[in-house]
Design brief:
Blueprint: H1 3-14, H2 16-21, E1 33-37, E2 43-47, E3 112-120, H3 163-166, H4 177-189, H5 196-200, H6 202-205, E4 209-215, E5 229-238, E6 241-244, E7 249-250, E8 253-254, E9 256-258, E10 262-264, E11 267-269, E12 277-281, E13 285-297, E14 304-315, H7 316-330, H8 337-347, E15 365-382
Parallel strand pairs: 6-15
Antiparallel strand pairs: 1-2, 3-4, 3-15, 4-5, 5-6, 5-9, 7-8, 10-11, 11-13, 12-13, 13-14, 14-15
Helix pairs in contact: 1-4, 7-8
């Protein structure tokens, strides 16, 4: 990396003050779609006009909408809006598919470990279309509120942020302040390295590190409950083999497990896990997701996950500290007032409590939603330990 790149990064991070604090709504992106209310309590879709001036009339009717794992175009791949099977709860847009009804436990007829091949950070749709509104379809409705213009049930904005800029949700109540407020900054920060999606996935494509989801009891059937799984980091790819990151384990046991996971209509759903899922942003820094929910639409052969979804919460202070260390590693001058200022701008993206709820307290969490694709691989022995990070600001 060249110093000029890191200078650009710092400049872009500082610029978040305007993007978060400003209360004026941005002009919509041509072709962007958002959810809207229809008669009977159902949801429809509004499309931004070709000149970007406004959203057109709400389109209602059967088939509109989709599962929470949408592609940024109003549809979804993790389920059909309002569909149900037998006595199971219906699949609702913006929510992970609920458990199947009266399903057998996983039979291990197709055990798999899936390695993430691409992470969608929110600058592009699943179809690869650059869109300012792509973030709206990544993630899930974490706080179980659909927030548009009323913020009375929300936590209080952080560090002088404007509620009207921070709190409004994505499609179907999806909470993703990271995608809405921070991804545009990262997009600018990494512009010297080319496209955001490519830059942020460099360590994956280079076989250096990835995310592994281990599903040992997965079967070929469409519905199972449970299909317990686990997450651990992957390191040092050789062909289809990935070594396991030792930092993801306590002894031989993965730290992050999904004991209540299930498969509903060929989509694996992790359930909420009480543990951390760590993701590297292009090798620049690592973010820690809490209260994670992962969904993975499976192909028939159980060889791929296409348009999976990761939803969770960043602890504001933990994330701000990560950014502070990142800047300090670039230049120790950022260990002082300059770094503190940038960290404060990160705090302005807070839209939720760090336990995934809302309250009348000051927000201390940042919602995040990411998409991913994955393929079946083999997880082998433990990799060498990652180097111990050095505190740049002692």
């Amino acid at each position: 990396m060249h110093i000029s790149h890191w200078t650009l990064t710092f400049t872009a991070l500082v610029s978040i003050a305007g993007s978060v604090s400003c209360g004026d709504a941005p002009t919509c992106a041509a072709g962007d779609q958002k959810a809207c209310a229809c008669p009977g309590g159902e949801s429809g879709v509004q499309v931004c006009a070709s000149d970007g001036s406004a959203y057109e009339t709400c389109q209602c009717g059967s088939g509109v909408g989709g599962g929470g794992a949408g592609d940024g175009q109003g549809g979804g791949t993790a389920g059909s809006g309002g569909t149900s099977m037998g006595g199971a709860a219906p699949i609702v847009p913006g929510e992970p598919p609920p458990p199947p009804y009266d399903a057998d436990a996983g039979d291990s007829s197709a055990p798999r470990t899936f390695a993430v091949t691409h992470i969608y950070w929110g600058s592009r749709t699943f179809d690869g279309v650059e869109s300012a509104g792509a973030w709206k379809s990544f993630g899930y409705d974490i706080d179980h509120q659909t927030t548009t213009t009323s913020f009375g049930n929300h936590c209080k904005p952080r560090s002088g942020a404007a509620a009207a800029s921070v709190f409004p949700d994505g499609d179907f109540g999806i909470d993703n302040a990271f995608g809405k407020l921070l991804v545009p900054v990262l997009k600018t920060a990494l512009s010297s390295r080319g496209d955001l999606e490519e830059a942020s996935n460099e360590t994956i494509s280079a076989g250096q590190r990835t995310l592994l989801f281990d599903l040992p009891t997965l079967g070929t059937g469409s519905n199972y409950d449970p299909v317990a799984g686990a997450y651990f980091g992957g390191r040092n790819q050789t062909g289809e083999d990935w070594q396991k990151a030792p930092s993801s384990f306590n002894g031989d046991t993965p730290k992050l497990q999904f004991p209540a996971a299930y498969v509903r209509e060929d989509t694996w759903v992790s359930g909420i896990a009480e543990g951390d899922l760590d993701i590297s942003f292009g090798g620049a820094f690592v973010i820690h997701l809490h209260h994670v929910v992962v969904t993975g639409p499976l192909d028939g052969a159980r060889e791929q996950i296409v348009h999976g979804m990761i939803s969770g919460v960043l602890d504001t202070e933990e994330f701000a500290s990560t950014i502070g260390e990142y800047l300090g590693a670039i230049d120790v001058s950022f260990c002082g007032v300059a770094g503190s200022g940038v960290m404060n701008q990160m705090r302005q993206a807070s839209d939720i409590m760090n336990d995934g709820t809302q309250s009348q307290s000051t927000c201390n969490g940042i919602s995040i939603g990411l998409g991913f694709d994955a393929v079946a691989v083999t997880a082998v022995g433990l990799a060498p330990p990652d180097p111990t990070p050095v505190d740049p600001c002692p």
